[in-house]
Amino acid sequence: MATRINHQSFWRIEAVNCDRAVSEYANFLKPFGIRLSCLLLLGLWLFGCNLFAQSYEGLNKLKGYQTPVYFSSGVEIKAKRMAKQLDQVIAFYSTQLQFTPSVTLLILSPQDWNKHTKFPFYGMPHYTSNKTLIVASEDNDYWKSMIPALDKMSKEQADLITSAYSDKKGGLNMEPFFDLLAIHELGHAYHNQGGLVMQRRWMGELFPNILLHTYIAENEPGLLPALTAFPKMVVATTEKSTLKYTTLQDLETYYNEIGPKFPQNYGWYQCRWHVAAGKIYDDSKIPGFKSLWYVLKTQREILNDKELVDLLKTKVHKSLADVPMNWDKIE
User: Fold this and answer.
1) Which residues have C-beta within 8 Å of that of residue 187, sequence separation ≥ 6?
2) Which of 306, 309, 310, 302 is nearest to 323 (CA)?
3) Of 174, 175, 247, 302, whose CB neighbour count within 10 A is largest?
4) How many CA atoms lie within 13 A of 168 on its CB side?
5) Which residues are within 8 A (CB) of 325 and not within 5 positions of it... i.e. 6 or more apart?
């Protein structure tokens, strides 16, 4: 069904709903496990309310990088690592897309978090409406809460998680996953500032996942396990019968309800989009992503479902069309 949408902001919760969303979100917090992991994954992608600060007072400015970076005291090593990676992402896509977004990176300690963002949960990367990308500087309770319960999954799944997220102390640390999601948030800068018409709410999140996966696969493939292990585990272990909404049409119709009221459900959608992004890259590589960019940039009219599938199949790649055509088969 063709629906007129605001393609600049439809993929975010409206600011007026943010307080209610946060309240609902807090009510779901439970001990460790898959349910909570999905819940917190929601926070990473969904709670991009228009929350931002415009002052960098009290932060250190990193010099020598294309991306403006401000960071809390004591985390210069991480600031340099993330600044270098973002510069590489931007340089890579500048060549591929002939477009460069404007973004400032803040790397914040718990003490500085509330001074520079009103975002309620420390540790969640988010991109704000003033072109600022905010990430956490250190391990925290929210990252720890995303560690899955290994005894509740198969040995194969547990081995995958252990291999991807083990730290030097022999424990599990989700920092590798969280840090890479900064590139997902950068992807929102691309489609916002690039003037893309995303056509559907699901495309508004699938697009930055493809951007993230394509960059890592092409330039830093050693990071693919950290990027893919958690979403694959969620998709493999979540029983669809426990979810209220499972179709893409459900998402289009009830998007503003799913996020605040059913965060686990939304996290499941996000994990499936990421698994789909990996397959899309495997099948279409860089030409597929470039084609998607130009199609979303030039197709200004909102299409109906059949028209959108035909466009993706003929102008991008069959793997893109497979997302709406074969949604139930993503695994």
Assistant:
1) 207, 208, 209, 211, 212
2) 309
3) 174
4) 0
5) 309
Instruction: Give me the residue label for tokens 């960059």.
Output: 215
pLDDT given for residue 43 in this prediction: 52
Domains and CATH numbers, the chain: 15-329 (1.10.390.10)
CA max distance for the chain: 53
Report the SS3 class of residue 214: helix
Taking the alpha carbons of 324, 328, 329, 331 in that order, is the dihedral positive or negative?
Answer: positive
The label of the residue with tokens 């992608």 reads 45
For residue 108, what are the β-bridge partners?
A: 136
Which residue, among 40, 41, 35, 83, has the nearest Cα to 60 in the 3D structure? 83
Residues 223-246: tens digit of each pLDDT: 999 999 999 988 988 899 999 999
What is d(CA 247, CA 327) in angstroms, rounded to the nearest whole number?
A: 7
How far, in Å, CA of 52 to CA of 117, rounded?
5
The dihedral sign for the CA sequence 259, 11, 85, 212: positive
CB 288 within 8 A of CB 317: yes
Please answer whether residues 238 and 34 qualify as being in contact, where contact means their C-beta atoms are separated by less than 8 angstroms.
Answer: yes
pLDDT digits (tens, 9 = 90+) for 68-81: 999 999 999 999 99
Selection from 176, 283, 265 nearest residue 229 by Cα: 176
What are the beta bridge partners of residue 106?
70, 134
Copy the structure tokens of residue 290: 């470039």
Question: Residue 302 class from Cβ within 10 Å (0-12 exposed, 13-18 middle, 19+ buried)?
Answer: middle
- Rounded distance between C-alpha atoms, residue 272 and residue 180, angstroms: 17
- Helices 224-237 and 34-46: crossing angle in degrees, nearest 10, is 120
Query: Reading across the β-sheet that carries 132-136, which strands appear in turn?
Result: 60-62, 69-71, 104-108, 132-136, 126-127
